[in-house]
Amino acid sequence: MHLFLFLAIPLLAIFLYQRYKPLPPGLDFSGAVQPTALPRLLTDYTYLDDNGTIRSEQQIFNAFFAAIRDARRFILIDVFLYNSFLGLADHQDRPLAEELTHYLLTQKELHPEITIVIITDPINTVYGSLASPHFAKLTAAGIRVVPTRLERLRDSNPFYSVLWHLFCRPWGTGPGRLAPNPFDPGQVSLRSFLSLLNFKANHRKVLIADQNDTLIGLITSGNPHGASSSHTNIALSFTGPAVLDLLHSELAVLSFSHGPDLSQHLPSPSDSDSDSDSDSDSDSDTTVQILTEQAIKKTALAAINRTGPNDRIDILMFYLTHRQIIKKLKKAQQRGVQIRILLDPNKDAFGRAKQGLPNRQVGDELHRANIAVRWADTHGEQCHAKMMHVTYQNTTSLLLLGSANFTRRNLDNYNLETDVAVRGRTENQVFTDAASFFTTLWDNKEGRQCSVDFAAFADPSPLKELIYRFLEATGLCTF
Question: Dihedral through CA 166, CA 167, CA 173, CA 175, nearest 10?
């Protein structure tokens, strides 16, 4: 008995501390509601045309790269996937990682004094096991690449991580060939493979750059990753004082990840808001708010709670599993709120077949609650967007989009996430664009086959629902 307590008490202490330890300063950030001029909604989506040919329409990285080309003084990028891994896929439709590296190197060559910083996730080097050719080129050109110190984050998979902290973390990570590479052919070190199983991530997808005499911010669900280039994704680009809020949220990550001190390079507040009213004749009442981590969940729940009869909620989501969100949606439906939810069927992952967990089980629960559910009609790619569009009968709207899936890992202060909340009159362009995009996907408009009926991927398995609930509650999963 004494031996059991001798072993159990330290394990329990590590378990509790790593799950509930204080977050680094600056995380779980809720920025001020800031004015902006003409925020621009950007979308990527893939569909079947009338001839059965797969086609993609893409705006996000065209705008992303244009912002890099326009910058002269400052670029900060924080992205989750920045690599050329293909998994089991046999091709990439667009080599986004190579394009990003090219544009960054070109800009540094043309403007040697420009400050460029890349914040990234250790997944891109398979947790220190492989060298990244992209990062090597950037570093050689004087561009700073900062891997996120994931160990500063809380444990989302604590039953595994408590053992990892004791027996694996002291050995560090590095090259090796004892374990299969989970993202590409070949081998990686066992130490790095075991680090992966903590399921921690800097999942943000952010760009900040100077543009003439102001700053531009871009928040997206998309990654500069070739095997992801055909995914359905969404983004918002914007100017105004909220860009400085976005920048300060990124400085928090640089601070705890031993990144560079950017204080000498920061633009003054007047640089970011000097033209925020230049287009005051259009969309002048539209506001944006930067949200990270759990602040995203609080905003989503508050928006759903505000809805009443004949209000509308449209959700486009790669993963939807968070129990609080699901319960609030079911209650909203009972209040007479019109809800449409378009989900990825969770059947494709870079050439690997998935079994539908967790969305098909969640979709079945929502369908039983008389909520309208449809599935993205994917053909190897994923419906990777994360968007909630709420339209209120008082003619106002809220649009929430960014990197965060509606899951425990993404919304409960485990992953690093960034979303933007856009508020304003329903008639404003950003909201009409969001409504048009969702309706195109939902109704297969203009001969574009984007979605299928609920019955196409319905899976009312009680066992699978139990498995999903268990995995979501414990963190023993990748969603």
Answer: 180
